[in-house]
Amino acid sequence: MYKKRQGIGSWIATILLTLYCLIAIVLIGNMVISSFKTKQDLLFNTFGFPTKISFENYRQVLVKDTLYKNFFNSIILTTLSIASLIFFSSMTAYGLSRYRFKGRQALEMYFLLGLMFPIQIAILPLFIIMRTLKLTNTFLGMIILYTANMSFSLFIFTQFFKELPAALHESAVIDGASEVTIFLRIMVPISKPVIFTVMTVSFVQIWNDFYLPLVFLAKRSLHTLTLAIYQYLANFLAYWNYVFAAATLSLIPVIIVFVVFSDQIISGLASGSIKE
Amino acid sequence: MTKSKAYIGFITPGFILYTLFMIVPLGFAIYYSFFSWSGMGAMEFIGLDNFKRIFFEPRMSGIFRNALGNNLRYMAIAIFVFIPIQVLMAYLIHLQIRGHKMFRLMIFLPYVISPSIVGFFTLLVFDPNIGMLNNLFISLGLPQLVSAWFGSPNIAFYLLVAVIGWNGIGVGMVIILANMKNIPEDVVEASIIDGASTWQRFWRIELPFLQPSIVNVVVLSSIFALTQFDIPFIVGGLNGGINGKLDFLNLMFFRYTFGDAYFGETALGFGAAISVVVFSIIFVIALLQKLVFNRVFNRR
């Protein structure tokens, strides 16, 4: 629709945006390169290439500091939370968008309140509820919280289900399928693209989450990668050569997911935010 | 849509989880705010005393006003500086300037970096001794530009805002960019034929179509601004940096709520009162923004 801009203004814009994007490239590149330096090398050759490639930092953080445990914690917690979130939010969204009943719209609004009020505001009573239910310092408790925080994914699922033709459901009913069968055999398979979108967006959010693990996972053996990196930062000057390796390790999964699924993540975040 | 009772079965499990762990806590926050309570033992009903302390007790109200001021200042920067930048970035990508596909990815990229790593990057760039910036200025022979950065009370806040902005600017940008695809092509083409300049076309024709996404980004950014926690906590610490320059309402809330681990002073009732105040401010600001937008855009 637009002819490609060839003017001087377009060149200036390209150069400015390139400089802006260089910030991320330099920061990430420097981190990866530095993670292969020895402490000596880092001190005297802070921003250059390593004089000798060393895996000592990785050996230290993974084996001696047992960062592999934090890595494992993050993977378990993120995977189970996403599975649970998708299960409950798709089911709820399906009930909300494919059936006609009194108060349906009010109920939908009720479920979207979570978009307006982030969980942080209610963290104190939540802490008391979790303590009473003996769910603090458990992965189960965290999975429940990530699932309960379902407004965003519920919204994406609701939009998708609403646009499906009614005939899909009617013909299945004529064939004698039960409501549960219709959901599992017809609706879930055709929702694969949306499920995928919710998966990738939640992966980034849960993997990087700092606040909930900080409050609810005080026990060191349960710390996620994000918390472990934070612990390193607290003793930054003593261990700064290790932080590079630890941070690189924790960034690898998100970067892979981002490179492969950036379109799903971006379109998911955008579609979840444009109402009307 | 179908008429069948099956919806009850589909909705109930999610309803229970969502209500118990999202909505009930909100209600309880209001309830606790009327009590003096250390988290264990008896709760003492003290009416509005917690709120009086927040607003009127000299020391506390000073801390509160300072933190609220930082939240509001950050919100103003997000709305009046970041959103125009987000619109401009989205528009340049929409116009398909050279490298637009890569820019879309690279501007969004920092969003997937965890707050801990953003905090680490902040140290690497701004540390007065080992940081990249000071070392760069020295090696370029510009020692007059060397600064204490986060150690300098005058600029620390703006540096923090820039870091948070770098981390999250891509989200609003892609929301607005997605909205640009809805601008009808024939209207734009007609304006080109009529000889409208790029500038006129943007202001008169394209910008009005972006109203839904801009309204949403304003509301989302405001909520985000009022609930800042992660990066200020990691970069500035729980006490809110030098002279409270990096203090925010959520940090203040955290200090008094989970105080025992940090200060030997826990005041859950007082913490709850702070969260009720934050909650009310979000509510009022979101409502005001809706009203303002309805006025402004309906007049067009």
* Main sheet properties of chain B: 2 strands, antiparallel
- Going by helix content, strand content and strand pairing, the class of chain B is mainly alpha
Give the SSE string of chain A: HHHHHHHHHHHHHH
Multimeric state: heterodimer
Under CATH, the homologous superfamily of the largest domain in chain A reads: MetI-like
Q: Uncertain spans of chain A, ≥5 residues at pLDDT below 50?
A: none
Which strand-content bin applies to the residues of chain B?
A: under 5%
* The CATH fourth-level homologous superfamily of chain B: MetI-like
CATH fold title of chain B: MetI-like fold
Structural topology:
The complex is a heterodimer of chains A (276) and B (300).
Chain A: H1 8-34, H2 39-44, H3 56-64, H4 67-98, H5 104-116, H6 123-132, H7 139-148, H8 151-163, H9 166-174, H10 179-190, H11 192-208, H12 211-216, H13 225-234, H14 236-271
Helix pairs in contact in A: 1-14, 3-14, 4-7, 4-8, 4-11, 5-8, 8-11, 11-14, 13-14
Chain B: H1 6-32, E1 35-36, E2 44-45, H2 49-56, H3 58-94, H4 100-108, H5 115-126, H6 132-139, H7 156-180, H8 185-193, H9 198-209, H10 211-226, H11 230-236, H12 249-257, H13 268-299
Antiparallel strand pairs in B: 1-2
Helix pairs in contact in B: 1-13, 2-3, 3-4, 3-7, 3-10, 5-11, 7-10, 8-9, 10-13, 12-13
Folded structure, characterized:
The complex is a heterodimer of chains A (276) and B (300). Chain A is mainly α and 276 residues long. Chain A has 2 domains: 8-56, no CATH class; 57-271, MetI-like (MetI-like fold), CATH 1.10.3720. Chain A has 14 helices and no strands. Chain A has helices at 8-34, 39-44, 56-64, 67-98, 104-116, 123-132, 139-148, 151-163, 166-174, 179-190, 192-208, 211-216, 225-234, 236-271. The longest helix of chain A is centred in the last third of the chain and has 36 residues, at 236-271. The radius of gyration of chain A is 23 Å and the shape is globular. The model of chain A has no long low-confidence stretch (mean pLDDT 88). In chain B, 70% of the residues lie in helices and 1% in strands. Chain B starts with 5 loop residues before the first helix and ends with a helix. Chain B has one domain (65-259, 271-299): MetI-like (MetI-like fold). In chain B, 41% of the residues are buried. By secondary structure, chain B is an all-alpha fold. In chain B, helix 2 (49-56) packs across helix 3 (58-94), helix 3 (58-94) packs antiparallel against helix 10 and helix 5 (115-126) packs parallel to helix 11 (230-236). The chains are: A mainly alpha (276), B mainly alpha (300). The interface between A and B is large, with 98 and 91 residues.
